[in-house]
Amino acid sequence: MRDELNCKMEDIELQLKAELLHPLGKIPKKGVENWLKDVKEMIWEAQVVENKVRNGRYLCRACNRKLVDEKTQEMKGFLDKAPNGSEGLAIDGPSARLPLPTSELVGEEAVRNEIWACLMQEEVSNIGVWGMGGVRKTTIMKHIHNDLLKQQRFKRIIWVTISKEFNVLKVQDDIVRALKLKEDWPREGDKLRRAAILSETLKYAGKHVLILDDVWDKVSLEEVGIPKPSGSNGCKLVLTTHSEHVCKYMGCK
């Protein structure tokens, strides 16, 4: 019974680990955490009893049988109450969909509505918001980001600020931080390996919107590790920039 319970615990732990990674931003259900904690204690207690019985620490056979029966019944109870993997073991974390602080829109509603319409069109994958500094591109996109959080159309809304001093490693780290990826991410290493890991992670993140704010020059999505958005995967790329040339290079509408 102890081996059976241990196998069940390992299965639950493996499934939970997978759910925490894909999609990201998940936390374990409270009942799952409590079950795993209690089961580990139960397995340890059962091992202690088993060792004492094997080593003859209990001289009374009736006592041995009673202790073993009690632990067996307790372990059976844990098996009966094991979390149902088909119902999922993790839920969205409290910070997975936090809105960004922003100011009110004043006269930019038409632009906001045009960008929103593009996001809702399945055939549009890359969207560029360009214009000189001071036209409140970032403010408009923050409002759109927050409005998208209220919808169920996309699983993840990811915001990353690029800035003038573009650095691939920093952008990769910023995306990973936004995804709340804690495991299997090399803090250092070559860009290609990191790009490969990030690309696979984003593919498993489901339908998402990636917003790259303040892009000054063309960005190689492949170099960073960003899968190409398309109608088939349902993902969107939105960038804000001073340059119309950057929008055209990135294939933006």
UniProtKB/TrEMBL annotation:
Residues 111-252 form the NB-ARC domain. It comes from the Eukaryota. Keywords: Plant defense. GO terms for molecular function: ADP binding. Pfam families: NB-ARC. GO terms for biological process: defense response. InterPro entries: NB-ARC, P-loop_NTPase, Plant_NBS-LRR. PANTHER family: AND NB-ARC DOMAINS-CONTAINING DISEASE RESISTANCE PROTEIN, PUTATIVE-RELATED, NB-ARC DOMAIN-CONTAINING PROTEIN-RELATED. This is NB-ARC domain-containing protein. It comes from Gossypium stocksii.
